[in-house]
Design goal:
Strand content: 15-25%
Helix content: 40-55%
Radius of gyration: 20 Å
Largest sheet: 9 strands, mixed
Bound molecules: ligand C2E, calcium ion
Protein name: Diguanylate cyclase/phosphodiesterase (GGDEF & EAL domains)
Number of strands: 9
Shape: globular
Order of helices and strands: HEEEHHEHHHEHEHEHHEHEH
Keywords: Membrane, Transmembrane, Transmembrane helix
């Protein structure tokens, strides 16, 4: 029993050191990811209940020659810890704005372009100026007013006054805000009332469970009611099945996003997708 215990400790230490090493490696390579052109963006369509593409969410991708493809769930938290998110976030905004402007010129008109924003990025002292400058450089006021910044409630700031001030400055550019992963974080309803949010995004974990538990059916209905009462638009992410789609449309969910319609794709594939959808 004693030696087993020792093995247990060893295994634990091995796992821990592997994890620490992986993190350090990511940290090290991530630092050069921008200058090495390893960061790209993908776009996932958002559709209304008539199956028309009304927008998309921008999702960052990182491919490194040593590490291979690393998912944002893994590297974004590290970028947040090291502060690299500020530089990375700026790059993402600039790329996304350029794409949005290109699409407008090509006659691809979207109601919204959703971009994920980290709290650490949002609280950086140059953020509001950076956003205003980028809007001015790449977008006309009409396009700026179609931007939606997604923030997550798990990373919600303790300093709510500062958060509200920052949001209001950003809103002067016409940009709206979405509460991402709604239902999974720590935010309360009073919190929702205080901050100037325009949209709720129901977390995909609730959508996945729609098919088999009445509990999550009720949960989704409740979230849809909250959105309606607070006059917020609502997006369901992670829609994978026809059943989920039908339920959400029945319950008057405005916007749907998920693998059932399309995975996140690069800019050129998105252009093709929009055109295909419009014809059919
Ligand atoms: P998120 O903002 O909640 O993004 C939704 C995630 O769900 C994306 O994963 C998307 O690819 C995935 N997804 C979409 N539809 C489906 C579906 O039908 N089924 C399943 N199983 N998954 C679906 P992804 O791209 O790996 O991103 C993970 C997280 O990384 C994001 O979660 C977001 O928190 C963060 N992230 C991604 N891009 C950015 C970015 O540009 N900036 C920041 N700050 N965070 C980002
Ligand atoms: Ca998101
Ligand atoms: Ca989410
Ligand atoms: Ca998330």
């Amino acid at each position: 029993a004693k030696s087993q215990g020792r093995d247990g400790v060893m295994i634990f230490n091995d796992e821990l050191s592997i994890r620490v090493e992986r993190k350090l490696e990511i940290e090290r390579f991530l630092h050069f990811a921008l200058e090495n052109n390893e960061i790209t963006l993908q776009y996932q369509p958002q559709l209304n209940s008539n199956s028309e593409v009304i927008g998309c969410e921008v999702l960052v991708r990182w491919h490194n020659e040593h590490l291979g493809q690393v998912g944002p769930d893994e590297f974004i938290p590290i970028a947040e810890q090291t502060g690299f998110i500020v530089e990375l976030g700026y790059f993402i905004l600039e790329e996304a704005f350029k794409t949005f402007s290109d699409w407008d010129k090509k006659g691809i008109y979207l109601e919204q372009l959703s971009i994920n924003i980290s709290m650490r990025q949002m609280f950086h002292n140059t953020f509001t100026d950076d956003v205003a400058k980028l809007c001015k450089k790449y977008l006309n006021p009409k396009l700026s007013s179609k931007l939606m910044f997604e923030m997550t409630e798990t990373s919600v700031a303790e300093d709510i006054t500062k958060l509200i001030n920052t949001m209001n400055k950003i809103k002067q550019c016409g940009i709206r805000f979405s509460m991402d992963d709604f239902g999974t974080g720590y935010s309360s309803l009073s919190y929702l009332r205080q901050i100037p949010i325009d949209e709720l995004k129901i977390d995909k974990s609730f959508i996945f469970e729609l098919d088999d538990t009445s509990k999550s059916t009720n949960m989704v209905k409740t979230i849809l009611n909250i959105a309606k009462n607070l006059n917020l638009s609502i997006v369901a992410e992670g829609v994978e099945t026809q059943l989920q789609k039908e339920f959400l449309i029945e319950e008057k969910c405005d916007i749907l996003q998920g693998y059932h319609f399309s995975k996140p794709v690069d800019k050129h594939e998105f252009e093709k997708y929009v055109q295909v959808i419009e014809v059919t």
